[in-house]
Every structure is written in structure tokens, then in C-alpha cells.
Amino acid sequence: MLGSDALRAARLVVDTGIHTKGWTKEVALAYLVDHTFEGKAYLEKQVERYAASPAQALSYKVGQLKILELRTRAQKELGAKYTPMDFHDAVIGGGTLTLGALEARVVDYISSRK
Q1: Which of 57, 44, 45 is nearest to 17 (CA)?
Q2: What percent of the chain has pLDDT over 70?
Q3: The pLDDT of residue 1
Q4: What is the pLDDT of residues 46-62, one digit of tens each?
Q5: Rounded to the nearest 5°, which phi and psi values hold at 49?
Q6: Could you list the residue range(s) of the whole structural domain that residue 91 is in?
Q7: 19, 8, 93, 4: which is closest to 59 by C-alpha?
């Protein structure tokens, strides 16, 4: 888990470095190699991915944090009625959503389980 979090954090730095600081792909790759536990071949693909899609790392992380926030809210409000499978169905079942629409969907899920 810590390795995955380190990779996500490093990708935020690389995304920002490439698109706002003018980092070359070589500089971005060196940063990932120095700050993560992944292999170089995998990291080269990550650099290509983030170079091609500005702010993808940021949007990924913001989405992750929102889902964790909503999960905590559901667990707190539902207590013993909370189940991971039902929460996942609520989050994934709506398909691709804005964060506002996702939050509304989870609020509906919570209300329906109370």
C-alpha cells in the first residue's frame, strides 16, 4: 500500500513537472526511479502516459480521495448496515460520473440503507 501511495504521489510531481516546469521525459523518469519502487520499464510507460494527458494524475488522486471520503461517510452513517460490496455497487454502478454526481449517488445509497 505504501509503495502504491508513493507511486501516486510521485506521478503528481511528474505530471506537474512535465506540464508546468518543462521537465523532459528523462528528468521525469529519473524522478520516478528515485522516488518509487517500480521497475524502469513500467515507469517509462507512466512517463509517456502522464506526458500525453495533462492533469491525469491530479484527477486520479482527487477521485481517489473523494471515494475514500464517501466510504468513510457511508461507514459512519450506516454502521453495521454498511457493506463494502453495496458501497462498491453504488460507486461503480453509475458508470463514469462527475464527483458531484458520484456524491449524490452515494448519499442516495446511504439514505436507502438507513
Answers
A1: 57
A2: 100
A3: 85
A4: 999 999 999 999 998 89
A5: -60, -50
A6: 59-113
A7: 8
